[in-house]
Design a protein that fits this description.
It comes from Fodinibius sediminis. This is SH3 domain-containing protein. Keywords: Membrane, Transmembrane, Transmembrane helix. The protein is an alpha+beta fold and 239 residues long. It has 3 domains: 3-86, Serine Threonine Protein Phosphatase 5, Tetratricopeptide repeat (Alpha Horseshoe); 100-171; 173-238, SH3 type barrels. The protein has 9 helices and 7 strands; from the N terminus they run ααααααααββββαβββ. The strands form 2 sheets. A 5-stranded antiparallel beta sheet has the order 6-5-4-1-7.
Amino acid sequence: MAHAQQGPQAVFDEANNLLAQGQINQAISQYQQLENQQKLAGALFLNLGIAYQRIDSLGKAKYYYLKSAKFPETREQAQEALKYVNTQFSHQSAVLPQLPWDRATRWLQDNIGETRLLAIGLILFNLGILLFIATWFFRELPGLIKPLSFSVLGLTVIIIAAAFYTRYVNNRYSTAVMVTQEAVVAERPLEEAALVSRAFEGYTFTVDHKRSKTQPKWSYVRMSNGLYGWIPSKEILVL
């Protein structure tokens, strides 16, 4: 039966069998068929990572393990695989610690999400309004209810602002992984531009989509060591 007539689970099972039999490239082809159809799941990305690791394409293995780590059901396995893969790269990049606000934003993205944050903010806003209205009816407790209502409304503003900022960061910036052996990071999006640094397979970057969209073949990135520059888009995969 042709793959197009098979259900996603049948294609996935067949790809798993190919992987188990050592037919790695055929397995990757079928996994990517599901990826192209947007049939996305943690197990699919985990197995793609395993497949690329077996053919020593460690940059792509890291990329798919990072994608798999976003799914609760495969997070632990993917994180363990990442620890191993990160020790196998021939070049290691210096890594600057994230700023506290950047860590907080990343945590909100990964664990709550801007939509849920906004929903929490709206619930608290309604609660604050109800508490404020309650001061009209419970005049014996104005000293308690009114400050509480203002506190809730103040917290609402903070949460809604965090939701919109998280959405802005999520839309503008993405993590990318270097999947080729070596490339240059340049000051400008030109092959003859001055060199900022050299990047190697497995390096991670933060891609600025707003700046990158002005140059279709280049991506403006922040390296993990804090340097900024342009890298050819074909050298990286964006999460």
